[in-house]
Design brief:
The structure is a homodimer. By secondary structure, the first copy, chain A, is an alpha+beta fold. Chain A contains twelve helices and 14 strands.
Chain lengths: 400, 400
């Protein structure tokens, strides 16, 4: 509970969580995030056609201002048909009743097994328990743990930024460890700020920030059915409303992007079974889209990820993934560096010490792969983790 | 060597292989396939920008008639710069000299580690040994083993087909176990026929056959740098030349497609670390392209593949992969069957017995996943294998 001090939570946000009995383990599985005042809200959701029953509800509720978010972990409420839509609606209704706001001011997040209906009776009883215990800033710190499933550690990030003449905070939390290959939405991530930001500008800034953070990350190449990133700005720090036209907006967007990027790196580092965080930096691309395709192809390659797990400097697999990525370049101008050492340059293998690189791969928890496509000036970064026995174990045993 | 009897090798083709010292294990690693007369030839090659030094040579030599193919296993001769191109050229030249044909009538296949130059001196000495020992039909049967790397078993298939008034044979061999996600080309596959087929028609038929076989298969989502499928038709069965306009051509193309499909299934079944062959059948799609995208997305999903390894009826992951595949459909009309049992129908989970499905997954070496998108009449099939501890082990330890 002392985490609430370390976590820089923006003014006017509180939270709480409980064990509603949704997770067989008995761990905390029902969370509430609440703003004391209505927020300008922006959200991005999975592009997966098969999506959670909560996703259409959130899209609809984002049409207006938002007061809070309820998250249940354990069952994702996906492929649950009409009954699933009813669970999402009743969750929002019950939380609104307890929070004293309109049902349309509540968003719902769900994560866990697909195809199993969450028990709405347990959710309603759980919400009564959470509100009965009282929501608080310390309770919000606890929410960063209770939204998790196979994650080993909570992921949070924050930045202070001075805008509209006030010191404001941008705070974010995320969950996600497997089924991670965000496509327009992402795993669950909630960004809270006490800055006063217009809805339109918040939305635009969130989209750009996600493109440079959550969309540059993959664990296993599977785009989840339940991805969502939501940003809430309650303006509790005071000060004038800022928007894209304001002088301070660039600073706000930079803080938002930094928070998203930090969360994305944390999700990749906590990928199911991971022992290494892998950062892929591509430069010299014709366009930013090419750079991102190239970086993501390397990050998604099971062969590259297995080699990193084996501390094996098998850089040919990096060249292979760049080659099929769809990015346009001439292999004769390609250069590759692995763990800070050049291995391939101008279409020819560079002289390098395999044993030294293997040692560097073994010694560090973070591995960097760098490629210069020699085709232009654009660059991009992608984050992933290694592919390990534990990834297979976790996903071979998930529901049984 | 008795395999040559079981293998229905077309008339006029011989082969041989030796241990040239390219594989550290000392296993056979240099192979020759030779036709006694010049062949109409067609080939498909990897679309990977980073490709083997032998690929441009093959593209060029396919401009004319072809007599033979040399394959070296151990080093893929990729990312080897100008020296790699020289190795490929000297390989073709030496084989042509020994076979008494033109250098441009020889194709070269290479497979193995990327970024390491094969020793051309060993290849030249090996070719002298192969030709010195004499090429034969039994020797060609041996080639089906000596082109392998991490494969556990050779892959061959054949069909008899009556065309041009003669009984002819279509025979194919393939290697491939990892870095399998063919894109326009595929892993190494050589199709030999004694039918008299025109070059243009052979080429068209091979492209269509590959679209329904090698392009419907994935082990790990990584498109190799060395993929190639080559078909050689030497006409040794006699009879008139047939082409796309001939009455018999449909029968020939069906035989060719059946051989390619069988090889693709065998490659998937022998995927690195595999314990299960997984067949994904998608029907009810708007277009064949949609059906193929949907089937390949399921086949590529690490989560689906891990669940199959765990004998875990976690069908929600199948729905998830269909949803992000890019195929157009309404989830409310989606149905899914796993191991022959309905699990999801019309947007709702079907009543099913999880334990029975888990038992069926445990009992059979082949697993079928069926999806009906409810959006049209098109269908497609994809083949893959499960994702296991051994896949990770093999690929964590490959070069070191």
């Amino acid at each position: 509970m002392t985490r609430s001090v370390q976590l820089r939570i923006p003014a006017g946000f509180v939270g709480g969580s409980t064990s509603a009995g949704l997770k067989p383990s008995g761990a905390r599985d029902l969370s509430v995030i609440l703003s004391e005042r209505p927020c300008a809200a922006a959200g991005l959701f999975t592009r997966n056609l098969v999506c959670g029953a909560n996703i259409p509800l959130c899209r609809e509720h984002l049409g207006g201002r938002v007061r809070g978010i309820v998250v249940n972990a354990g069952q994702a409420n996906v492929c649950t048909g009409d009954a699933g839509a009813e669970v999402a609606a009743r969750t929002a209704r019950k939380a609104a009743e307890l929070a004293g706001c309109r049902e349309t001011e509540i968003l719902v997040g769900s994560t866990g097994v697909i195809g199993v209906l969450p028990d709405v009776g347990k959710i309603e009883a759980g919400l009564e328990a959470v509100f009965g215990d009282g929501l608080s800033r310390a309770g919000l710190a606890g929410v960063t743990r209770s939204i998790l499933t196979t994650d080993l550690v909570p992921k949070t990030a924050s930045r202070r930024v001075r805008i509209g003449g006030r010191s404001t905070t941008v705070f974010g939390m995320a969950k996600g460890s497997g089924m991670i290959h965000p496509n327009m939405g992402t795993m669950l991530a909630y960004i809270l700020t006490d800055a006063a930001v217009s809805k339109r500008s918040l939305n635009a800034a969130l989209r750009r920030a996600a493109d440079r953070s959550f969309h540059c990350m993959t664990v296993d190449g599977d785009t989840s059915t339940s991805d969502m990133v939501v940003a809430l700005a309650n303006g509790a720090a005071g000060g004038d409303m800022v928007d894209g036209a304001s002088e301070d907006f660039e600073a706000f967007e930079a803080a938002l992007t930094a928070v998203c990027e930090s969360l994305a790196r944390q999700v990749a580092a906590d990928g199911e079974g991971a022992t290494r965080l892998v950062t892929v930096r591509v430069r010299g691309a014709k366009t930013e889209a090419d750079a991102r395709m190239a970086a993501m192809a390397v990050a998604r390659s099971s062969l590259v990820k297995s080699a990193i797990f084996g501390r094996d400097p098998n850089w040919g697999r990096i060249a292979c993934a760049l080659g099929y990525s769809g990015a346009r370049f001439d292999p004769a101008r390609l250069s590759i560096r692995l763990a800070g050492r050049g291995v391939f340059s101008g279409g020819q293998p560079s002289r390098h010490n395999r044993e030294e690189i293997a040692r560097r791969l073994a010694d560090k928890r973070e591995v960097t792969i760098e490629a210069d496509l020699g085709a232009g000036k654009a660059h991009a970064v992608a984050w992933t983790c290694d592919l390990t026995y534990d990834y297979v174990r976790i996903n071979a045993e998930y529901t049984t």
